[in-house]
Amino acid sequence: MKEYFATVFSKDKYSLGESPFYDQRTKTISWVDITDGKFYSIGDDGKGTVYSHDFGQAIGAAVPAKNPGSYVIAGTDGLYLLEKNRSTCIKNLSEFYESYQRSNDAKADPAGRLWFGSSVDDDVHEASGNLFCFADGKVEVKQPDTKISNGMAWSRDHSKFYFSDTLQYAVFEYDYDLTTGAISNRKVLFKPEEGRGFTDGMCIDADDNLWVAFWGGSRIEQRSTKDGSVLSTVNVDAKNVTSCCFFGKDLDTLLITTSGRGQNGKDDGCLFTCKVDAKGLPCDCATLA
User: Fold this and answer.
1) Is 46 helix (H, G, I), strand (E, B) or coil?
2) Which whole-number Å values give the CA distances from 189 to 2, 9, 53, 169, 250, in the listed order?
3) Beta-strand relationship, 2-5 and 230-235
4) Angle at 216 (CA atoms; ends 51, 230), nearest 5 degrees
5) Rounded to the nearest 5°, which phi and psi values hold at 26?
6) Can you name the residues that pair with 211 across neighbouring β-strands?
7) Which of 12, 90, 120, 288 makes the best surface tag, with the fewest CB within 10 Å?
8) How far is Cα 277 from Cα 81, in angstroms, rounded to an integer?
9) Catalytic residues
10) Does residue 251 contact residue 27 with C-beta atoms inside 8 Å?
11) Is 226 exposed, middle or buried (0-12, 13-18, 19+ CB in 10 A)?
């Protein structure tokens, strides 16, 4: 089994870094700090100047949108379009969320629909939520009764959908219909080893292998979608690893987010990178049409 070691990309620390994306159209990497409510991006393949936007509320994710340089933000009370330094609410979510919930991870599917999960935003209420899809101005529940909706990915041929529910302790596989966006026939692809962390965000490579972040596990694991087996490991010098994406000219380097909240390690909360022997796929963008 191949073993890699991630390096610190930036010494800046984030309370709950999440939702890394790479937009090939603009050569821009982006991520959010969920609890600080801030969106960040850097152009020129991560060599440019850091841009930030403060939303004043917890934001679970920021997904590249149809127009280059714009993003759909999954917030506490709604979905927002961030474009030209201005944010506009495009869907109020108050009827779908309890007062103690917020958006969590989000991604666009190959047809441009926005998929997003909800999560409890405090330490008082029991973990609960749903996995939603936003398309044609409407929100639909795709997977009810989730605990912490997290990583999402679609197979290269668009026939499979993969979903990480952190507190159901599994990554699930579904059949996926590109035309309708329907998911069906859920089964467990794999469960993490007990005591070695919980599955968080993830991405998929061009060979249909998942790269899964482990909260409390200080690593990314490359997992086969054929049988869920571990193919390689990326060691990260931070306890709570939250997500990853491929970036760069050849899409062969991982950008890794971590959480520094409640941790005192030297690199907890930093961004990391790691060049690997795999290539990613260009990210899908939310069309909102």
Assistant:
1) helix
2) 21, 31, 37, 11, 28
3) parallel
4) 100
5) -115, 0
6) 203, 222
7) 12
8) 35
9) 200
10) no
11) exposed
